[in-house]
């Protein structure tokens, strides 16, 4: 049995990772597979993402590029499971939500050094949400078309009959009455796990959120990190929604609250740097089939800020414990108080 250190060394050693991928894929397809170049993308704070050149896949001629995602022991909120991402992508296959096709996956860390999944590589580029206020705005027609795709894909996601799809395995007794509370309790547990000191403001926020849980209009598939930066676009159209590691079942207002956070506006007044708020909520309501509750949006904005604070707490702890040697981690830790202060302002404004 490989130790945690040995598994992480396997991830860091490209030659070892290459040979392990070849052995695994050969076993999966029942024929010899050759792995060429492996390229790691310098993005993300949790799962590692690689482009892997593969030759010998059934029905494919020559080298094909796959995406490999690895969830290492040292990532934020580790240990990981590939199941939520795979279940969501398979549940959305054939729908109007553009997602990569999921191929193979396993949570057995002895195979590649960490839980993993392989999926197709989709063409396109990511639009960055974090820009300065002085950077030129997106070209108007380009922005508008992306915004329409962004809104419409979210509405379709929230209409998917998940009860009939693989993701139903993640239901765990959730309903419209308890969706918000279960969400708050999950993040309360994350804060208890990762905080290195008491945060009275976080505890105050948790008490308020538990006392003001809204009833969801429906239980839906919630992306959990739906924003600019987590989709690919090509020619002004969204080609794929990415980063499904926070996917769960819950209140669809949660994705609205997250997408509308100020830090994703890129110095503009546009939701996720794409859509005018009034139009965003109006178009979404029309597509999804229920009226958006702005009280619920504000509630989930407050919860989203608590989530961000919890993420920053995890980042600080991972760096402090030497698990993740990335200088972005302590920088994220410096934002804990800012997120909690914004959460407080959001709660006070909602009263």
Question: What characteristics describe this protein?
Answer:
single chain; 351 residues; alpha+beta; Phosphorylase Kinase, domain 1; Aminoglycoside 3'-phosphotransferase, Chain: A, domain 2; 2 domains; three-stranded antiparallel beta sheet; 12 helices; 10 strands; globular; disordered N terminus
Give a topology summary.
Blueprint: H1 4-12, H2 14-29, E1 34-40, E2 48-55, E3 63-70, H3 83-92, E4 102-106, H4 109-112, E5 116-120, E6 125-126, H5 140-157, H6 179-194, H7 200-211, E7 220-222, E8 231-234, E9 237-241, E10 248-250, H8 253-259, H9 277-288, H10 294-320, H11 328-333, H12 336-350
Antiparallel strand pairs: 1-2, 2-3, 3-5, 4-5, 6-8, 7-10, 8-9
Structural class: alpha+beta
CATH-defined topology of the largest domain:
Aminoglycoside 3'-phosphotransferase, Chain: A, domain 2
Give the low-confidence spans. Answer: 1-9
Number of helices: 12
> Sheet bearing the most strands, described?
5 strands, antiparallel
Rg from alpha-carbon coordinates? 20 Å
Calculate the mean pLDDT score and round it: 93
CATH superfamily of the largest domain: Aminoglycoside phosphotransferase (APH), C-terminal lobe
Q: Tell me the CATH architecture of the largest domain.
A: Alpha-Beta Complex
- Into which percent range does the helicity of residues fall? 40-55%
The tally of beta strands, per DSSP, is 10
| Shape verdict | globular
Whole-number count of domains:
2
One letter per element, helices H and strands E, the order comes to: HHEEEHEHEEHHHEEEEHHHHH
Distance between the termini: 55 Å
The neighbouring-strand order within the major sheet is 1-2-3-5-4
Q: At the first level of CATH, what is the class of the largest domain?
A: Alpha Beta
Work out the strand percent: 5-15%
